[in-house]
Amino acid sequence: MSGAPKKRGTRIEPFRHRVETDPKFFDKSWRKLHDAIREIYNHNASGLSFEELYRTAYNMVLHKHGSKLYEKLTENMTEHLEEMRVSIEAGQGGLFLEELQRKWDEHNKALTMIRDILMYMDRTYIPTNKKTAVFDLGLELWRDTIVRSSMVQGRLLDTLLELIHKERMGEVINRSLMRSTTKMLMDLGSPVYQEDFERPFLEVSSSFYSGESQQFIECCACGEYLKQAERRLTEESERVTQYLDIKTSEKITSVVVKEMLANHMQRLILMENSGLVNMLVEDRYEDLTRMYNLFHHIPEGHPTIRSVMASHIKETGKSLVTDPERLKDPVDFVQRLLNEKDKYDNIINVSFGNDKSFLNALNSSFEHFINLNNRSPEFISLFVDDKLRKGVKEANEEDLETVLDKVMMLFRYLQEKDLFEKYYKQHLAKRLLSGKAASDDSERSMLVKLKTECGYQFTSKLEGMFNDLKTSQDTTQNFYAASSCDAVDAPTISVQILTTGSWPTQTCSTCNLPPEILAVSERFRAFYLGTHNGRRLTWQTNMGTADIKATFDALTYREIEQATAIPAADLKRCLQSLALVKGKQVLRKEPMSRDIADDDSFCVNDKFTSKLFKVKIGTVVAQKETDPEKLETRQRVEEDRKPQIEAAIVRIMKSRRVLDHNSIMTEVTKQLQPRFLPNPVVIKKRIESLIEREFLERDKTDRKLYRYLA
Amino acid sequence: MACGGRVRFNVGGQVFETTTTTLANAGRDSMLGALLDSSWNLPSSSSPPPPPPQGGGVPEYFIDRNPSCFAVLLDLLRTGSLHVPPHLPEKLLYREALYYGLLDHVRAARWGAFDGDRLRLAASVPGRAPGDGTAIRAAPDGGCCVAHGGAVHVYNWMLDERRPVSLDHSQVNDAAYLDASTLLVAARERRHHHRGGADGDGGDGGGGMAAFSAVSGELLHRFRVAHAKQAKPFTAGALAFDGGGASVFASCKGRLNEHGVGVWDRATGEQADFFYEPPGCALGDADKLQWLDGASALMVASLFPRSDNCFIGLLDFRAKAVAWSWSDATAAASALGDDKRVLHAVAMEDGRSVCVINQYDDLGFLDLRKGGGTGGGVRWCSRSKLMSRKVLLPGEESCYPRLATHGGQLFSSMNDSVSVFSGPEFVLTSTLRRSHGGAICDFSIGGDRLFALHNEENVFDVWETPPPPII
Which residues of chain A make contact with B48, given a CB cutoff of 8 A? Predict the structure, then answer.
């Protein structure tokens, strides 16, 4: 600075040309900056005057030396960096990275100061001439002179990859040095980090994990292998947070996932003795959770797990419902289904994060195999019957509620819900009439469940049954209140008045009543019809019970049959129950054979004793339906379906007016699906019947079309 | 810094004392920021600390610059407001601010936040070429550009002219600032392009659309329209870009059937879409495009005199459909004698309506939420009766009116003045008028300034809001 005014003094030039005419202006100014930059790189900047340097650079730019200055700067900085490179290359072994790091820090500090000096150029010359800003120029030069120089590039990459390999093999490495080195690469711009480090890193990782997974899969069980994979994934993501770019996280994860999981997915899931099926069978929640979480990374991972699980459930379920051994005990049958359901509910809840798609798979699998056995509706109803009979005796009402809720789950899987309804009605009727319904609350709660599931129609008749019982009680009371004075000696009767239609139809087998009972019955009939006009009463004697006090003679079967007129099958069944059940032989039969002949005689077994005050004698016949009964129920159900199918057809045709055959089929099926799966042949028959009755007609031109006739 | 953060400067012989806190306002990326940074003030082992310890240990720095400008700039750092003494030329101050790296500070303090009702005339810049000024556009940083003929003259916020953008004799139709340093220009294709298109490029009849550097005037990118994978020459009309900054739109007219609105990706500059004009919608001739953020649609307006009837439509690019449209085709033909022609249109900022203006300076509104249709639908406010319009002298040239919205206010230019309408009912609240320059042919608001281009001599006025009062 001190030189310039002197020079000016010696020349006789107009003031405004002062600098232009100094041929050495640029060189002198540049020398000043050049020296200062050297001092900066030598950590000797304390003697420098920023103001002077800034002003010098300003003047150079102002006097149109911007491009020359830029050129010189590039040249000069490259020289300094080349010096640095020499000392970096000299770094041996572990010192190499440290030296590189030290020089990088130095360069950064120097670069900031150089940028400060040239700030004016950064603001004016560089944007108008589309040059790289000074700081970025410094980074580019570092990249090209050092990081990508032939001597450093390969060595840097090898060193980094080797350290990472060591760490993978369990050694402890200097992570902070790793971090600062990768940060340097990132500072040079993401392309540098990606091309010079990330890509080769991913390639090396890929072959590392490909080898490791080969090794593991040969010797590890599935659970063990997955543990390893999980550990590796955690390690890699920790590595990223420790010293790699956060964007690498996804990429390295996908490498590990591909090599360790995706490439071996089928083999792992289907692995014999340790794969998914074993985990399911043994309820290995932890392993299942791990498998679910790990395979989440692979698009086809969860679908595969799901389908293997579903086919396993279907398989075990099928063998369960088709096992003839299981058909012997309906309660156990349903209990096993419930256990199976509980098991998988737990697995999905605990290990599969309550994943909706898995729940759906579970449901459809159950739906599939439960309907493989057409007795499932009956058995489920029997199971409910069992629970509601014993009910509170075994468990409190809350537990019963949960059991009933679970049963409802099974009920939802049923295709033939109407069949269930039939059975449920029968079983409910028996419970109610024999007074074995343990808890009215539980009964009603079950009804509410069915109602919410299937709607009002489904349960209206069942509710009718409850109402009948209630009114019967009142009526009986009224009857006795009205007839208190006469016939004190007559036996007391309790009458249940059942509305025809609400209750399962009974084959009305009458029997001869004893005259005392007959008299009371007739009085009751007169009383009832007196208060209710236009009704008809029929006695269902086969459903009745009586307490009797009597003296018995020995009677032959034929005598009993003639006196009572009870149908032979029923009578025989009763007598067998009374005389042939071991330990409960109230009657003695002569001879003591199993079958009953006409001349067999029965008398009271005087030797019968019991600790109990009240002895219950079950009927010999099993709760389950016998084959002919089953056939009959099936026929009744089929018969009941006809009007429903017809109603559906009419509803559909009423709104559509004209429809082709196939569409009707699909729509009817869709409408009725909640209750049962209609048979296409039956639908077709119903359509024909409707055509005959002139609800529908075939289109005259297109025979496939049906028209609705209003 | 030592001594309670006090700092002393000797600027050109005059001593200033201030605090590091005040100087921190300059920022690290300024000359003063660097000067005080620790890396430049390291205690030396060999020599004593650089600032001489006179004056009670307060460090002192010498700066070889103009002291009176430094005083103004130091005051700016202290108070955040700019006070320029009358004797101090502005250009001198700007130059010094650039030296210290404080030019952005000066610009921010130079004028206040835009308010249409508090505008003052700040400058009047004489034009280059007489006549033919087509458009003026405000830059986001307070600069502007004026398109006339085959060139766009670019001014920085100090109103110094930069290197112009030259289009080699293609007529400029529209210009828009993508950002402070990037200018989009739409130009008409030359009719007789030289050497009969032997260049094979297909795009070189001039014209079309391109991005230029607003700093250096260089061509940065040329936007192409391709049909059947071949770039076609075209005339670009109006320009717009969307709020998210992802797409650039232009109305295009090719030589064959390439009429419509072109869409380009802003990041890559590649053509992303082309909306061919359906029958009855003159999209290729559009005079005005405007992106509506709320509706995610582009408003297209084709106006008199370029097209005989006014057509306004909203284009939905996702559905590839005209979501709403209006035209005055039947109203113009009706025998009511009501020959109100829509001459300009602007979508209101709430995106619910479009404001239009006719030759009598009446404002009208079209509801975008109702169906458009033809003819009626415009709710006219017959302002013309209330306005004392300047009666044109014979031979005096008039200009078509223009509309703009900004910050909830509505602006319209008519003849030699700009009217400002405010409030929910858009009441006339201010009029900007100047005695010379003739009618206003275009105006633009941006960078907290309003620029109005006059028809005569291409002079343009700069209106800005003064900084807020002291108390």
Answer: none
Interface list for B 129-188 with A (CB within 8 A):
181
Domain count, chain A: 4
A interface toward B at CB cutoff 8 Å? 45-51, 54-55, 58, 109, 112-113, 116, 119-120, 123-124, 127-130
Domain that holds residue B40: 6-110
- Could you report the per-residue pLDDT of B111-156, keeping only the tens digit for each? 989 999 999 999 898 876 665 677 899 999 999 999 888 889 999 9
pLDDT in tens, A221-265: 999 999 999 999 999 999 999 999 999 999 999 999 999 999 999
Residues B80 and B131 in one domain: no
Residues of B in contact with A50 (CB under 8 A): 34-35, 40
The CA-atom distances, in angstroms, between B1 and each of A116, B10, B32, B100 are: 19, 17, 14, 20
User: Where in the sequence is the domain holding A497, given as residue range(s)?
Assistant: 376-543
Which secondary-structure segment (H or E) carries A180?
helix A175-187
Q: Which sign does the torsion angle of CA A254, A257, A259, A265 carry?
A: negative
Residues 6+ apart with CB under 8 A from B103: A123, B94, B97
State which residue of chain A sits closest to B214, comparing Cα positions: A128
Strands (E), B200-341: 208-213, 219-223, 225-227, 230-232, 234-241, 247-254, 259-265, 271-276, 288-292, 297-302, 311-316, 321-327
Q: From the list B34, B63, B216, which residue is nearest A119 (CB)?
A: B34
Q: What is the spatial distance between Cα B183 and Cα A134, in angstroms, rounded to a whole number?
A: 25
CB A30 within 8 A of CB A69: yes
User: How many other CB atoms are found less than 10 A from the CB of residue A245?
Assistant: 17
Same domain flag for B276 and B419:
yes
Helix (H), strand (E), coil (C) string for A6-45: HHHHHCCCCHHHCCCCCCCHHHHHHHHHHHHHHHHHCCCH
The domain boundary residue, chosen from A111, A130, A151: A151
- pTM higher than the cut 0.95: no
Which residues in chain B are contacts of A112 at CB distance < 8 A? 39
Please say which residue of A565, A591, A621 terminates a domain.
A621
Same domain for A535 and A578, yes or no, is no
- Collapsing DSSP to helix, strand or coil, B418 comes out as strand
- Establish if A283 belongs to a structural domain: no
